[in-house]
Amino acid sequence: MVFVNWWLVGETTLAVLLIAAGSVGFAKATILPQRILTLGVRAVCVPVAGLGTILGLLLLLETVSGCKTVSAPIYSPSGRTAARLYYFDVGATGGGTYVRLFWARGFRQQKVFSAPWRAAGASEIRWISDSEMTIEYSGGAAAHDIYCASTSAVKIVCTPK
């Protein structure tokens, strides 16, 4: 399975389409026969292009902020399913760790594990088979802070170190 982050592709495509639609609409509005129609179309196109620009800037900010770290995909033995480990750091208030499973060429995903910041690492995620995965997490985390859930196709076993 070639791993593609489809959410990133979709958000980028949406931002580019909004900017393009607003810009082209603004430029083409001059061919309209009545001045009021030209002004109306341009009044709609400016906010559309502005929304696309804001979306693109937010996407860029999220990508380069450094507050979220993502591991390389950890593939199942057959390569049809992949897991990714995410760390997010929110500064002095802590952060978190979570694991997402991806299948159907990355179009489907589900969160299967969540814990306090740096409670697990990529080396603690192991595939036993295509239908079972183990995640070891630091034993210092309280039980109520740990979320561990299986999917219909993959059994997830979470154990403290």
Model description:
The protein is α+β, with helices and mostly antiparallel strands. Helices cover 33% and strands 31% of the residues. It has helices at residues 6-28, 35-64; strands at residues 68-70, 74-75, 82-89, 95-103, 108-116, 125-129, 132-137, 147-148, 155-160. Strands 1, 2, 3, 4, 5 and 8 form a 6-stranded antiparallel β-sheet that branches. Strands 6-7-9 form a 3-stranded mixed β-sheet, with no helix packed on it. The protein is elongated, with a radius of gyration of 22 Å. It starts with 5 loop residues before the first helix and ends with a strand. The mean pLDDT is 89.
Continuous helix count: 2
Per DSSP E runs of 2 or more residues, the count of β-strands stands at 9
What's the SSE pattern? HHEEEEEEEEE
Task: State the major sheet.
Answer: 6 strands, antiparallel
Q: Which of globular, elongated, flat, extended, rod-shaped describes the shape?
A: elongated
- Uncertain segments: none
Question: How big is the Rg?
Answer: 22 Å
Give the helix level as a range of percent: 25-40%
Beta fraction of the residues? 25-35%
Q: What's the pLDDT, averaged over the residues?
A: 89
In whole angstroms, the N-to-C terminal distance is 31 Å
**Which structural class do the helices and strands define?**
alpha+beta
Give a nutshell description of this structure.
This protein is an alpha+beta fold.
List its salient traits.
single chain; 161 residues; alpha+beta; three-stranded mixed β-sheet
SSE topology sketch:
Elements: H1 6-28, H2 35-64, E1 68-70, E2 74-75, E3 82-89, E4 95-103, E5 108-116, E6 125-129, E7 132-137, E8 147-148, E9 155-160
Parallel strand pairs: 7-9
Antiparallel strand pairs: 1-3, 2-3, 3-4, 4-5, 5-8, 6-7
Helix pairs in contact: 1-2
